[in-house]
Amino acid sequence: MDVVSDAIASVRTGRPHSDRLGVSGSWCTRIAAYDGAGFHVVLAGSCWLLPEGGTGIPLGPGDVVLLPHGAGHVLADGPVDAATAARAVPFEEVRPRHTAGDVELLCGKYRLDRSRTHPLLAELPQVVHLANRADRPSELRGAVDLLAHELDGRGPGSSLALPSLLDLLLVYMVRAWLARAATGTWPAVLGDPVATAALRALHADPAAPWSNDSLAARAGVSRATLARRFTALVGRPPMAYLTWWRLTLAAARLRDTDAPLAAVARETGYGSPYALSHAFSREFGTTPGRYRAATGQDLTRPDLT
Question: Taking a C-beta distance cutoff of 8 angstroms, is the pair 14, 110 a contact?
C-alpha cells in the first residue's frame, strides 16, 4: 500500500456513520467534540460552519468539509457569533429530521484509533474545507455525486455501496488537502522523489530485511543522500521510521484481528514473537497480549503475553 492508504487504514476502526439532515428556516445546531473524524457534504442549499475557537466558514452546494481531529463545531443557517453558538441545539435533537429542506446535508463520522496516528494525519488542520470549485479534483466531485445518488437507500446494494463511498470520500479529502497545501511537512515529503521512493518501498513490504544500503539503492541515491533528505523531511532516519511503522502495523493487527503473535511478528518483520514482544513493550509500555485485551481482542492465547 501507499503512505496515504496505510496512514488511514492503520487508524480506521469499524464503519463510518452518517445521517442525512434536511432543515429549513432559522436553525443552529452544535456537534460536540468526539474521538474520530467528522465530515459534512452540502447536498443542497447553503449554511455556515463555526469550529470551536475558529472563524465562520460559508458552505455552498457541493462543498465538503473534513474535521480530521473531531473538533466540536456549530452548523447554522447563517453567520453565527459565540453568543448564538452557545444557544445552539444539540445535533441529536435535530438529527431525526430526514425530510427534505431548504438545506440538505450529509453529516457523518469516521471512527479512529488515535493511539498511533500517522504524522501525515496528525498534520491535517482542524478543518479542511473543499469548496465546490472548478479546480476541485474530479474524483472528489465524482464521489460526492455518487453519494447523493445512493443516499435514498433504494438501489440494489446501496447498504454496501454507501459505507464504501464514505471510505473513498475520506481518501479523496486527504488527497485533495495534500495536493493544495501550500506548506506542511507531509506535502513536502510526498513531493520529494527520494523520500517518496523510500516510503513507497517500506510501505509496500515492511517485513523485508531493509537496510540503509538496500533502501538507498531502491531510491536510486547514495546512503548519505537518503539519510540526509529522508531525515530532514520526515523527521526521523529511515530505519527509525521503519521500526515505528512496523510496531504501528503490529498494534493494528492486534487490535483488529485474532492472528497469533507469531503471525503478527512475521508480517511486521520480526524474527520471533519474543523479538516483537520486546520491541512492542519498549515502544508501548505494555505487552502485546495486554494491548490486545485493552483494545477489545481479549483472546486467551499463551503466545500473546
Answer: no
How far is it, in rounded angstroms, from Cα 185 to Cα 233?
A: 7
Nearest to 67 by CA among 99, 108, 103: 108
DSSP single-letter state for residue 107: E
Q: State the Cα–Cα distance between residues 291 and 305, nearest whole angstrom.
A: 9
Q: Look up the pTM and report it.
A: 0.87
Predicted confidence (pLDDT) per residue in 264-301, tens digit: 999 999 999 999 999 999 999 999 999 999 886 433 33
pLDDT per residue over 163-172, tens digit each? 889 999 999 9
CA distance 26 to 30: 14
**What are 14's strand-pairing partners?**
none
The pLDDT of residue 94 is 79
Q: Where are the beta strands (DSSP E) in the chain?
A: 17-23, 28-31, 36-44, 47-51, 57-59, 64-67, 73-76, 89-90, 103-111, 128-130
- Phi, psi (degrees; rounded to nearest 5) at 80: -135, 135
Q: Is the distance from CB of 30 to CB of 58 less than 8 angstroms?
A: no
Residue 54: band (very low, low, confident or very high) from pLDDT cuts 50, 70, 90: confident
- Type of residue at 29: T
pLDDT at 2 over 90: no
CA distance 184 to 83: 34
Query: Helix 212-219 and helix 238-256: axis angle, to 10°?
Result: 100
For residue 23, the cross-strand partners are: 103
